[in-house]
């Protein structure tokens, strides 16, 4: 597989992002955006210390946090390590909230393909609706694009009917040209979603990287007719950021992508901030985090 | 008693690297100040000027694309050739009324002027270009480029130093030119052409016409292919005519006086800047 | 799932509510006067011109209309100030005035931005983020030159010229005032400035700033009026130097008026710039560059990239992407923070643009306009592009000064350089390619004063700006921007 022929100019991307971020979203359009953003959240916990109890709490939150606020949607999914899938699946029974598992030796991806495939298969067997895999960045940076593509392809097969999100870990890809190329490789190899980051590496999602991935998705769609989703993850904790991502989405990919089927936020504390903002918009009073449960 | 007939030179103009009579076949009769001799000088027509401008335009891209080092060497070569032909030029200047001492001085000054400007070719750009620290992630720099085809109305008072003082900085800057030599001092035209011809100045880069200012000012200042005009003189009617006509294609007009060529204090890179345009380029700095 | 004939739906259900810039703390006076000899003064004959907000067609205020006697007063005041305090003031002190003015523009920046947008129709995003900050930056940059002029031009002593008359256009009212005033003042001249008749307000607020800054009376005088007033200034014997920004037609008229007068002048005139997109360019960023090149400030930009040249192999991709991008441009209320394209500056200019669009259609150009909804009142023009045109079309040759882009294709570098230069203008140009050597090949061969490579329509006080050929002579900005306002003397003179 050859590297993408599409070139990216970093300064041009930065300027486009700055211009999009200058959009001023007020009143009803702000409430609408916040509501939409809430429905796009993959509520996430990915700690070595995660316990079944913590995952159960997270699931409770996913299914109940909106209930005090009539008319609000639930989040899109919860996102956990593969061993937690059983717990999560059980806790979410009867709800429409999806369960996503990170797999393939997340976050480094440093293990054999066989081990990765086994991990994916088990997670799917345990009931994962979505698999978030990581690409082999070392292989990518060494120019072994075929390997990266082949691996994604195999994982996709192992997923069966589960949706595959491919994490590019853009913080390790260094250049926007690489982000573009990795996006194309992932989409061509069968990704249902492409995702910026594991959240374990800085920088995680940035507006620049996300814009480049949106443009890659748009071009792939116009060429092949396949709509691939996008998930910026890590570092998005404020409502204002979420709205800026949605502005970018609206003006790059348009109406079709403004739904949880094709756009997600990978985040842990964003949901609370959105709730605070929604309360503020409804009451006109600025809110305090003390009044919103942190887990 | 020497009864051999001397072989006289036919005075010609220099157009597109060729020694040419006026297409009109006109000449004007020029008499030496001592009234001993009378010589037929080509009387350039509007068409001769037009042909010269075409030649200068054709030569422009090649000449301005040459390296500064190469232009420097060619102009220095002009000085070398002129030095070798000093006697001939001194003779012509004497025939136009100078005493030997003054004629010798003018030739020497002309040679030194060529050497002076040859040395500027690869330096004035360094002096007058800039890297501009813009307040954004861009590399921004300004360089000088040739204005283009330059029409020159050379000083009436001098048939050698004056015209070279106009031509040399013009060429150094990568322009090509069409110059009208002093109507009153036309004798050096042919020898100058020969000098340029043997100095590797490419055809069309310098075109030398002889003729009447009064006739040629109009086409010189109206021609739309001419980008700049250097006028040497103080006739306000002529200046007004030139500057009015120049508006038609926004020609750059420089009005120069005797101070701009007579002595060494006139030598400066600012003479080159008369026929330079500055170009500023922006490019992002990123990866 | 594969979708047949995929296309984007950029008219999303979720749209942006109006986000109007608050104008509460801005006061527009009932009338504005001339600024002569440090005082606001009505015109001799007491006449005024109505000032129209092009977005509402309503009268904002009225502005004094100067006549011949007012010009006389202004030039005389400038002369007195030149021979009096200004030329005697130490250069460093002169500089401190300019620094102070820069700061005061920053302090009143929001007020200036709002009034600029109301007066001229430009989006508040541009007046707030570009026009006003750049105006302040210009004063700040030239302030520092005041006491360093002898370092600017090697081997020469720099001397001021005297009284300069400066005539500026309506597309960047305050910014153009700053471009003219700052270097001229730093060089030690005194001035008479004439803003454009449709957009005089921010210059008159600047006058207020100059007064508050304590600038000696007469150093800057501002007279408002139309082209006839400009003519009087150009012909006034008491004026030593003319600086003009505007159309090439008027520039030529000024050249003829000044013929034989021995006066210095600089001209910044029209343009019809080529913006060249190679197949190996970063296409998505190039699309933004195209948008910036032609839709910035409603296309009222002399250096606009109004001729787009796209390499044939990517022409379809580029035009499709450009059309999609045009769909997301928001046209409307200049005071809305989300507006991308504001109001056309005047009814006259709107008619001119519309006439060119008609010509384009009659000549066989293929028209595309975005599906934006234009407000009912005010002067508006949808972003427009023409394909299927060539160098022989009038809309390709003539400066339209509106949001109208003519698109052509090319195959080779030499071909596109020839076409780019196939115009009497030479103000600016753009080139987009990822290949370094090609950038220099093209930028070197385009006959224009400002070339943007992989960007477009960027401005900075340190960066010289001005044209080749019929786009004018002289530069504004940078060290070179001082030259039009100085006499250079040798040490013996």
**CATH topology-level name of chain B:** Aldehyde Dehydrogenase, Chain A, domain 1
Biggest sheet overview of chain C:
7 strands, mixed
Q: Total number of β-strand segments of chain B? A: 12
Task: Write out the strand line-up for the largest beta sheet of chain C, numbering strands in chain order.
Answer: 14-15-16-13-12-17-18
- Mean pLDDT level of chain B: 96
Integer average pLDDT of chain C: 97
The CATH level-2 architecture of the largest domain in chain C is identified as: 3-Layer(aba) Sandwich
Instruction: Give the tally of β-strands of chain C.
Output: 20
What is the approximate shape of chain C?
A: globular
Within CATH, the superfamily of the largest domain in chain C carries the name Aldehyde Dehydrogenase, Chain A, domain 1
| C-alpha-based Rg of chain B, rounded | 20 Å
What count of helical segments of chain C does DSSP give? 14
- Form type of chain B: globular
Structural overview:
The complex is a heterotrimer of chains A (295), B (287) and C (493). In chain A, 46% of the residues lie in helices and 11% in strands. With 295 residues, chain A is α/β, with parallel strands linked by helices. Chain A has one domain (10-291): TIM Barrel (Alpha-Beta Barrel), CATH 3.20.20. Chain B is globular, with a radius of gyration of 20 Å. Chain C is built from 14 helices and 20 strands. Chain C folds into two domains: 31-269 and 470-489, 3-Layer(aba) Sandwich (Aldehyde Dehydrogenase, Chain A, domain 1), CATH 3.40.605; 274-460, Aldehyde Dehydrogenase, Chain A, domain 2 (3-Layer(aba) Sandwich). By secondary structure, chain C is an alpha/beta fold. In chain C, helix 4 (124-143) runs parallel beside helix 5 and helix 9 crosses helix 10. Chains in contact: A-B, A-C, B-C. Chain B binds chain C through residues 127, 130, 132-136, 138, 140, 142, 145, 147-148, 227, 236-237, 239-244, 246-250, 252, 255, 265, 268-270, 277-284, and chain C through 137, 154-156, 248, 251-253, 255-256, 258-260, 262, 267, 269, 424, 439, 443-444, 447-455, 458, 460, 462-466, 468-473, 475, 478-480, 488, 490, 492.
């Amino acid at each position: 597989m050859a590297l993408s022929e599409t070139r990216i100019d970093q300064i041009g991307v930065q300027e486009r992002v700055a211009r999009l971020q200058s959009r001023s979203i007020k009143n009803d359009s702000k409430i609408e955006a916040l509501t939409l953003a809430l429905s796009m959240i993959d509520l996430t916990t990915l700690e070595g210390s995660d316990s079944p109890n913590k995952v159960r709490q997270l699931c409770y939150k996913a299914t109940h946090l909106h209930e005090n606020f009539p008319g609000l949607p639930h989040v899109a999914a919860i996102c956990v390590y593969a061993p937690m899938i059983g717990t999560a699946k059980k806790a979410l029974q009867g709800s429409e909230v999806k369960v996503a598992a990170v797999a393939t030796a997340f976050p480094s991806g440093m293990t054999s393909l066989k081990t990765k495939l086994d991990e994916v298969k088990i997670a799917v067997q345990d009931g994962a609706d979505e698999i978030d895999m990581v690409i082999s960045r070392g292989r990518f940076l060494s120019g072994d694009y075929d390997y990266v593509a082949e691996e994604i392809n195999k994982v996709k097969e192992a997923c069966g009917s589960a949706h595959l999100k491919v994490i590019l870990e853009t913080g390790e890809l260094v250049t926007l040209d690489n982000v573009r190329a990795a996006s194309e490789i992932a989409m061509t190899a069968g990704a249902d979603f492409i995702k910026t980051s594991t959240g374990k590496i800085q920088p995680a999602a940035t507006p620049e990287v996300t814009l480049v991935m949106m443009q890659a998705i748009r071009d792939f769609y116009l060429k092949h007719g396949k709509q691939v989703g996008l998930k910026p993850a890590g570092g998005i904790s404020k409502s204002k950021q979420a709205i800026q991502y949605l502005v970018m989405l609206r003006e790059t990919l348009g109406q079709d992508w403004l739904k949880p089927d094709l756009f997600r936020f990978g985040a842990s504390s964003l949901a609370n901030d959105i709730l605070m903002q929604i309360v503020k918009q409804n009451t006109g009073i600025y809110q305090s985090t003390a009044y919103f449960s942190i887990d | 008693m020497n009864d051999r007939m001397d072989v006289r030179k036919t005075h010609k103009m220099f157009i597109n690297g060729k020694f040419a009579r006026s297409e009109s076949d006109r000449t004007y009769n020029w008499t030496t100040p001592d009234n001993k001799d009378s010589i037929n000088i080509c009387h350039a027509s509007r068409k001769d000027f037009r042909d010269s401008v075409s030649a200068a335009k054709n030569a422009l891209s090649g000449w301005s694309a040459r390296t500064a080092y190469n232009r420097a060497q060619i102009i220095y070569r002009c000085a070398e050739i002129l030095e070798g032909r000093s006697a001939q030029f001194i003779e012509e200047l004497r025939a136009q009324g100078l005493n030997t001492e003054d004629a010798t001085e003018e030739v020497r000054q002309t040679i030194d002027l060529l050497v002076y400007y040859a040395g500027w070719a690869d330096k004035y750009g360094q002096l007058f270009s800039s890297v501009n620290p813009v307040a954004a992630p861009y590399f921004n720099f300004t360089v000088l480029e040739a204005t283009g085809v330059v029409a020159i109305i050379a000083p009436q008072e001098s048939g050698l130093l004056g015209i070279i003082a106009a031509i040399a900085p013009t060429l150094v800057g990568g322009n090509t030119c069409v110059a009208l030599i002093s109507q009153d001092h036309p004798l050096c035209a042919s020898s100058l052409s020969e000098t340029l011809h043997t100095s590797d100045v490419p055809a069309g880069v310098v075109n030398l016409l002889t003729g009447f200012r009064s006739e040629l000012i109009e086409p010189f200042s109206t021609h739309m292919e001419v980008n700049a005009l250097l006028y040497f003189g103080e006739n306000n009617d002529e200046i007004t005519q030139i500057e009015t006509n120049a508006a038609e294609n926004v020609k750059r007009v420089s009005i120069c006086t005797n101070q701009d060529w007579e002595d060494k204090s006139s030598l400066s890179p600012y003479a080159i800047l008369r026929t330079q345009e500055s170009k500023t380029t922006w490019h992002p700095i990123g990866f | 799932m594969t979708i047949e004939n995929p296309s984007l739906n950029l008219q999303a259900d979720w749209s942006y509510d109006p986000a109007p810039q608050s104008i509460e703390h801005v006061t527009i006076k009932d009338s504005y006067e001339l600024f002569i000899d440090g005082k606001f003064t009505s015109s001799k004959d007491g006449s005024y011109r109505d000032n129209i907000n092009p977005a509402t067609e309503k009268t904002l205020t009225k502005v004094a209309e100067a006549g011949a006697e007012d010009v006389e007063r202004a030039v005389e005041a400038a002369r007195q100030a030149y021979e009096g305090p200004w030329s005697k003031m130490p250069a460093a002190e002169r500089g401190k005035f300019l620094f102070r003015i820069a700061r005061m523009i920053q302090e009143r920046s929001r007020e200036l931005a709002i009034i600029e947008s109301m007066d001229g129709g430009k989006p508040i995003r541009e007046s707030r983020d570009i026009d006003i900050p750049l105006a302040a930056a210009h004063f700040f940059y030239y302030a520092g030159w005041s006491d360093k002029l002898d370092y600017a031009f090697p081997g020469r002593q720099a001397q001021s010229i005297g009284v300069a008359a400066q005539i500026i256009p309506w597309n960047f009212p305050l910014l153009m005032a700053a471009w003219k005033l700052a270097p001229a003042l730093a060089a030690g001249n005194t001035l008479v400035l004439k803003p454009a008749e449709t957009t005089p307000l921010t210059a008159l607020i600047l006058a207020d700033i100059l007064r508050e800054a304590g600038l000696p009376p007469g150093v800057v005088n501002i007279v408002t009026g139309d082209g006839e007033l400009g003519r009087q200034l150009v012909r006034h014997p008491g004026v030593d130097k003319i600086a003009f920004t505007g159309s090439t037609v008027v520039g030529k008229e000024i050249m003829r008026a000044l013929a034989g007068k021995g006066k210095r002048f600089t001209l910044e005139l029209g343009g019809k710039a080529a913006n060249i997109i190679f197949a190996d360019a970063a296409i998505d960023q190039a699309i933004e560059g195209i948008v910036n090149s032609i839709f910035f400030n409603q296309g009222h930009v002399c250096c606009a990239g109004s001729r787009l040249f796209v390499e044939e192999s990517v022409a379809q991709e580029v035009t499709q992407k450009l059309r999609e991008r045009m769909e997301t441009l928001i046209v409307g209320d200049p005071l809305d923070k989300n507006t991308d394209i504001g109001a056309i500056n005047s009814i006259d200019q709107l008619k001119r643009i519309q006439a060119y669009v008609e010509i384009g259609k009659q000549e066989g150009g293929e028209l595309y306009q975005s599906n934006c909804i234009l407000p009912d009142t005010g002067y508006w023009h949808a972003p427009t592009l023409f394909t299927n045109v060539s160098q022989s079309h009038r809309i390709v040759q003539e400066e339209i000064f509106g949001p109208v882009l003519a698109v052509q294709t090319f195959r080779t570098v030499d071909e596109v350089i020839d076409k780019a230069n196939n115009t009497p203008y030479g103000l600016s140009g753009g080139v987009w390619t990822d290949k370094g050597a090609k950038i220099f090949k093209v930028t070197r061969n385009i006959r224009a004063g400002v070339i943007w490579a992989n960007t477009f329509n960027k401005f900075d006080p340190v960066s010289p700006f001005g044209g080749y050929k019929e786009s004018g002579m002289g530069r504004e900005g940078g060290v070179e921007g001082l030259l039009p306002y100085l006499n250079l003397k040798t040490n013996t003179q």
